[in-house]
Fold this sequence. Notes:
Elements: H1 16-35, H2 41-47, H3 58-81, H4 84-101, H5 107-135, H6 138-169, H7 173-193, H8 208-219, H9 222-252, H10 259-284, H11 286-310, H12 315-341, H13 348-372, H14 379-399
Protein name: Bcr/CflA family efflux transporter
Subcellular location: Cell inner membrane; Cell membrane
Organism: Pararhizobium capsulatum DSM 1112
Amino acid sequence: xxxxxxxxxxxxxxxxxxxxxxxxxxxxxxxxxxxxxxxxxxxxxxxxxxxxxxxxxxxxxxxxxxxxxxxxxxxxxxxxxxxxxxxxxxxxxxxxxxxxxxxxxxxxxxxxxxxxxxxxxxxxxxxxxxxxxxxxxxxxxxxxxxxxxxxxxxxxxxxxxxxxxxxxxxxxxxxxxxxxxxxxxxxxxxxxxxxxxxxxxxxxxxxxxxxxxxxxxxxxxxxxxxxxxxxxxxxxxxxxxxxxxxxxxxxxxxxxxxxxxxxxxxxxxxxxxxxxxxxxxxxxxxxxxxxxxxxxxxxxxxxxxxxxxxxxxxxxxxxxxxxxxxxxxxxxxxxxxxxxxxxxxxxxxxxxxxxxxxxxxxxxxxxxxxxxxxxxxxxxxxxxxxxxxxxxxxxxxxxxxxxxxxxxxxxx
Length: 412
């Protein structure tokens, strides 16, 4: 069973531009929770007695694991109680944990609170996608998701710089005060500006049978399942870079305080790609754009891997190869997610939770493996990118029965 949404839809009390901005801020909760603290990882480790550089990456991994697991619950909850109540509950939990971390006495305690903070943040990831699916369908959904991703990508541009600025005037604890205040600001916008997008008569009962049935609908839809798996592996490459970005850009290339600027440049490129996708997707379609970008991603990653194994990459060549790969990522993400969600509008919350759980857990674990493989060179990262690109391509072939670039595909 599928549902069809009109290509255009409106929220009577919220113009499209404001809707996109609010959805982007909700998704930005997760980006800012990771990227703003990258400049502070070294100080966090030193303050809490963590000597191993790779172990500091667990500050990110713990958050991703909490967010990934909790998404399985927020989806069905939002299908039963509507979008706003579970969303506000998640934002509240997130803010409380952020403030609690300020007073944490140990690295273990910090990791535990980061896990629980990720649990709260899961609501923003799941429900923002569900709300977009409630309001838009088809290529229009892909366009809106691209615009959301474009604004969302601005956060990695500025977040490390904000973190670096905070570190100039305060210790790492202040970073968590800032993200607590941001969560409270977004929650106030949800309360006063976002209408409920799931009507009472479209809600599903919150029972084990209903939840299992919703999961079955998602997991037995070939297009939704395999596009989700493809995106999960490709996200693994991105998480691998985030985990090891500070070690590569500062440790290998010696950028020092210029690290946030370089990180911002890469994120800006993905924002440009997302904007490009939003302009092109209604003309060329999700499949043509994303399939071509996936092939480009494989080629770029393969060349990068070969170059990294043959020679010690100079910084300019690293920038060129990584940038080309990540531009393709910007054309892939919104389209793959839209294609995974498109046939599942009647269980949007549950579908978003399963998709988000899979992408976050698989992507987080793969990213952690890539990050932990860091050996003082960019070889593990480049190799990881190529591997996840090839695996993602295989999953797309399965989803499309071996035929790429088709403008339409049955949803079963």
